[in-house]
Design a protein that fits this description.
Blueprint lengths: L1 E6 L6 H17 L3 E6 L3 E2 L2 H8 L10 H9 L6 H4 L6 E4 L10 H9 L8 H8 L1 H10 L7 E3 L4 H7 L4 E5 L9 E3 L2 H12 L5 E5 L3 E9 L2 E2 L3 E4 L7 H5 L5 E3 L6 H17 L5 E9 L4 E7 L9 H8 L4 H14 L2
Helix pairs in contact: 1-13, 5-6, 8-9
């Protein structure tokens, strides 16, 4: 097949997207596919440009807002013609954040009649919107931490959520713009940080405890994984720097807890109407209660990413994972 791998773009998660593409492209070529690389900020890449771009790893910090604005100003138009992908049998979305994950890219590909990986534009938009996602989780009895949307007085936050709280952009991934406000004095600064990345800001009750994740592939929940972190949150550095976190697949938990998280993950996946694959993140508090944090419609595919690790724990190696994802894109077109 001819497969166009879309990645990069003008997103705070650009580096993560490039790292995903660096894993996906050679693996697809090894399967015998004709693969061409497309940076959605620059268009279809030559072989030389592809080699130069894909050797970079993920930096310790996401690109600055100024750097993203510069990339956006130089970006090609958002269209299949500009990307030169009309001849692709499948478009593999290695995009993360922004236009690539919030439904806009998916809507463009739908209008062009192209088969693509991941979820459709409606599901992608719903998953990116944390406020909407959490409302939908609760509609199918999936517990999620209490939350408020800014602007809201610190006194109300303290009374309804308690301290500390997690403050984050409503539509952003990879914990970009996320911080913990430990008291009312921290709240305004945390909101200002989140507002740099999104006009809507969520304030969520902090759940102290252990962090878990469940991948979904073809409507089946993969083995539960645990992310063991040194700090309070699984932040950008912990996610993408080698040694930033210890990831255990399958997680060392009871069969009952594993089954519960897998059930919640499937419910979350289904209520959002996500596609062939996704990843759902959880925390379990010290009392043993499980809380769903968010859904990822385009989970990472880097060397340290969680979905490939979950698939491997189920006996599915990376090339087979990619084959199933591509087959699903054609099947659900």
């Amino acid at each position: 097949m001819k497969i166009a791998v879309l990645f990069g773009g003008a997103s705070e998660e650009r580096d993560v997207s490039i790292a995903s593409a660096a894993q996906i492209i050679p693996a697809l070529r090894a399967l015998g596919h004709e693969v061409f690389a497309v940076d959605t900020a620059a268009g279809r890449l030559s072989s030389a440009a592809e080699r130069k771009l894909l050797v970079a790893g993920v930096a310790r910090e996401p690109p600055s807002i100024a750097a993203i604005d510069d990339i956006r100003a130089r970006s090609v138009a958002l269209s299949p013609a500009a990307f030169e992908i009309r001849d692709a049998d499948v478009v593999f979305l290695a995009l993360h954040g922004g236009v690539g994950e919030d439904g806009r890219m998916q809507a463009m590909l739908d209008l062009a009649g192209l088969a693509y990986t991941g979820s459709n534009h409606v599901a992608s938009a719903a998953a990116m919107d944390k406020d909407l996602s959490k409302r939908l989780f609760r509609s199918v009895d999936v517990p999620t931490p209490n939350w408020l949307m800014a602007p809201v007085a610190a006194e109300v936050v303290g009374a309804q959520l308690g301290w500390p709280v997690v403050v984050k952009p409503n539509k952003q991934g990879s914990t970009v713009g996320l911080s913990i406000a430990r008291s009312s004095q921290d709240l305004a600064g945390a909101i200002r940080l989140a507002e740099r990345f999104d006009r809507e800001v969520m304030i969520e009750a902090f759940v102290a405890g252990r962090e878990f994740t469940v991948g979904i592939l073809e409507q089946t929940a993969l083995p539960v994984g645990e992310i063991v972190i040194a700090g309070d949150i699984f932040d950008y550095q912990a996610k993408y720097q080698t040694g930033g976190a210890q990831e255990v697949f399958p997680a060392d938990i009871s069969a009952g807890d594993s089954a519960l998280m897998q059930d919640y993950a499937l419910r979350a996946h289904e209520v959002l109407k996500l596609g062939v694959y996704s990843r759902i993140d959880f925390r379990r508090d010290h009392a043993g209660h499980v809380w769903c944090l968010e859904a990822n419609s385009l989970p990472g595919m880097t060397a340290t990413s969680l979905l490939p690790q979950a698939a491997r724990a189920a006996g599915i190696e990376f090339p087979e994972l990619l084959r199933r994802i591509c087959a699903g894109a054609i099947r659900t077109r």
